[in-house]
């Protein structure tokens, strides 16, 4: 079956890209006949599921693929200022030293992902699957499991939005929700993830508890702070 598989979302989970993503959306919105998002709306929007968010912003499902492509294009010219989430580099280093294979499944572009990882020396990932639809990640996860020769019980998907947790469930993997990205804790809790984490320092311990294998050094105390479901 091979080593356990730890699969990461990218935006909001590894990359602290929320501000740039919002700016890209607001640049794209008018030409797609969508309204811009004001900063004053963000606390309320973060408490919504993805479906609720699309309803409030008036985004029909048929527009979503074209919207995602347009936002990715806008990000290409502005992604140089994006940095990793504070503390995620250390967590990835700990996981890479243990008995896990690290991979990424993201709706962002491969160019943006590779650029940030190279810029900040986060060369821990064996496979990067980019350009997945926000609501189509489950299919990519199942394909990744098949290609890796593993099953859902030996894999976990880590993400910051409700579609990430639903994708993990649909693909049969464990699910870790993180609160340092786009979504507030409330909609993430409603998806019943296997663990809900508030800081990257909690990641190595949570992964070790869910997947077994070698416990990364220094993760014992941090892991106890994770809110497991």
Write the layout of secondary structure elements.
Layout: E1 5-8, H1 18-28, H2 42-45, H3 50-57, H4 64-76, H5 88-97, E2 101-105, H6 110-119, E3 127-129, H7 137-148, E4 155-159, H8 162-171, E5 174-178, H9 185-190, E6 195-197, H10 203-211, H11 220-223, E7 227-228
Parallel strand pairs: 1-2, 1-4, 2-3, 4-5, 5-6
Antiparallel strand pairs: 6-7
Largest sheet: 7 strands, mixed
Helical segment tally?
Answer: 11
**pLDDT below 50 for ≥5 consecutive residues: which ranges?**
218-226
Mean pLDDT: 88
For the biggest β-sheet, the strand order reads 3-2-1-4-5-6-7
* Alpha-beta classification: alpha/beta
Query: Helix content range of the residues, please?
Result: 40-55%
CATH topology name of the largest domain: Rossmann fold
Integer-rounded radius of gyration: 17 Å
CATH homologous superfamily label of the largest domain: HAD superfamily/HAD-like
As a percent range, the share of strand residues is: 5-15%
Q: Span between N and C termini?
A: 26 Å
Tell me the name of the CATH class of the largest domain.
Alpha Beta
Following the backbone from N to C, one meets helices and strands in this order, namely: EHHHHHEHEHEHEHEHHE
Number of strands: 7
Principal-axis shape: globular
CATH architecture of the largest domain: 3-Layer(aba) Sandwich
Counting structural domains, the number is: 2
């Amino acid at each position: 079956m091979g080593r356990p598989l730890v699969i990461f979302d990218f935006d909001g989970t590894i990359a602290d890209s929320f501000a740039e993503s919002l700016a890209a959306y607001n640049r794209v919105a008018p030409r797609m006949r969508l309204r811009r998002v004001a900063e004053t709306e963000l606390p309320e929007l973060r408490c919504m599921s993805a479906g609720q968010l699309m309803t409030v912003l008036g985004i029909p499902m048929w527009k979503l693929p074209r919207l995602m492509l347009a936002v990715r294009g806008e990000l290409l010219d502005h992604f140089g200022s994006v940095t990793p989430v504070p503390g995620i580099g250390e967590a990835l280093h700990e996981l890479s030293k243990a008995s896990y294979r690290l991979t990424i499944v993201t709706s962002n572009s491969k160019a943006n992902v590779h650029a940030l990882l190279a810029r900040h020396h986060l060369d821990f990932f064996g496979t990067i699957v980019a350009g997945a639809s926000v609501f189509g990640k489950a299919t990519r996860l199942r394909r990744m499991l098949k290609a890796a020769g593993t099953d859902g019980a030996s894999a976990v998907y880590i993400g910051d939005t409700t579609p990430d947790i639903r994708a993990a469930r649909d693909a049969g993997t464990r699910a870790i929700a993180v609160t340092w990205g786009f979504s507030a804790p409330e909609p993430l809790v409603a998806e019943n993830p296997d663990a809900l984490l508030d800081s990257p320092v909690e990641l190595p311990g949570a992964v070790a508890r869910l997947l077994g294998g070698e416990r990364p050094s220094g993760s014992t105390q941090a892991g106890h702070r994770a809110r497991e479901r």
